[in-house]
């Protein structure tokens, strides 16, 4: 009886990895092509990438930058006790912050109330941090349909635009770069809810909702982000150049003072010598 054939260990076949890698490469090329022909929805893109990383085992899905900003904005709203008049949401463009004008501005003016300033200041501090500064901040002013006619505000257009501009100015004064900021006045052209019923009677509750300031935080695309970085670099270089020139000027003035002092000392010595010679 012949002995059984020796056991031979089967080699690990990893040919499937080549096919898998090819498939992944093709998928990536397909998505790159889609992106090149479409407008990128950055918040949605962040969410998709986070989900993909979790599904293919590259780690747990982490909170996206847009979601982080929304969370921090909400935390500040609760810290300042304004959660009843500020609504923070996330949409396809980024983060929206809806603020009731009655709690934000003095009636009939574009003057920000003192109780609203700490919240705006803390938001500005968040949006100047390195990881969160690449957001466009679009501020929209909205009114109800009751007309206003004053020397300062001839119509709702001027009032809504002034309130948006006041918010932008405050945020800029709090450190937010002007490149990020934009102010728009919509008057009563874009109501959140109907101002009046079918009979034309004012719905006071709805009018109060329509008197608002809407702040949109929109993530910058790649090109805009690069432009912003170039602007920041140019400003930094210009600031360094101004400092260098000021230091050079200060050194030159110091040298000039020393030369003048030395010259005065020399002249003083000459006068003393002349007096001595005259006495002799």
General description of the model:
With 280 residues, the protein is α+β, with helices and mostly antiparallel strands. The chain has two domains: 66-220, OmpA-like domain (60s Ribosomal Protein L30, Chain: A), CATH 3.30.1330; 221-267. The protein is built from eight helices and five strands; from the N terminus they run H-H-H-E-E-H-H-E-H-E-H-E-H. The chain has a five-stranded mixed beta sheet. Helix 3 runs antiparallel to helix 5 (117-126) and helix 5 crosses helix 6.
Oligomeric state of this protein:
single chain
Number of domains: 2
Let me know the CATH homologous superfamily of the largest domain. OmpA-like domain
CATH class of the largest domain: Alpha Beta
Number of strands: 5
Q: What is the approximate shape?
A: flat
Strand order of the largest sheet: 1-2-5-3-4
Order of helices and strands: HHHEEHHEHEHEH
Q: Helical stretch count?
A: 8
For the termini, the CA-CA separation is: 144 Å
- State the secondary-structure class: alpha+beta
Helical content stands at: 40-55%
Uncertain runs are: 52-58
Report the C-alpha radius of gyration, rounded.
33 Å
């Amino acid at each position: 009886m012949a002995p059984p054939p020796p056991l031979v260990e089967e080699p690990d076949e990893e040919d499937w990895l080549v096919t898998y890698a090819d498939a992944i490469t093709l998928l990536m090329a397909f998505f790159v092509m889609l992106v090149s022909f479409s407008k990128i929805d950055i918040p949605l893109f962040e969410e998709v990438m986070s989900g993909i990383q979790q599904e293919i085992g590259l780690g747990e899905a982490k909170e996206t930058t847009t979601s982080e900003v929304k969370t921090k904005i909400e935390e500040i709203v609760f810290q300042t006790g304004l959660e009843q008049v500020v609504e923070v949401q996330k949409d396809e463009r980024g983060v929206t912050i809806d603020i009731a004008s009655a709690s934000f501005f003095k009636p009939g003016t574009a003057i920000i109330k003192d109780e609203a300033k700490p919240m705006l200041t803390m938001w500005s501090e968040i949006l100047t941090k390195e990881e969160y500064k690449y957001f466009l901040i679009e501020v929209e002013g909205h009114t109800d349909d009751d007309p206003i006619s004053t020397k300062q505000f001839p119509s709702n257009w001027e009032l809504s635009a002034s309130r948006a501009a006041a918010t932008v100015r405050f945020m800029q004064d709090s450190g937010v770069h002007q490149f990020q900021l934009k102010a728009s006045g919509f008057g009563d052209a874009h109501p959140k809810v109907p101002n009046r019923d079918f009979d034309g009677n004012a719905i006071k509750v709805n009018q109060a909702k329509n008197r608002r300031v809407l702040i949109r935080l929109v993530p910058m695309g790649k090109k805009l982000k690069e432009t912003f970085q170039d602007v920041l670099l140019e400003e930094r270089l210009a600031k360094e150049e101004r400092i260098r020139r000021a230091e050079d000027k200060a050194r030159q003035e110091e040298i000039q003072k020393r030369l003048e002092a030395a010259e005065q000392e020399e002249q003083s010595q000459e006068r003393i010598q002349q007096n001595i010679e005259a006495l002799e």
